[in-house]
Amino acid sequence: MVVPKRHVSSYFELPFKEQSACWFMVNKVQEILKTEFAPDGFNVGMNINRAAGQNMMHASIHIIPRYIGDTVGAKGGIRNVIPKKK
Question: Does the predicted model carry a pTM greater than 0.70?
Answer without folding.
Answer: yes
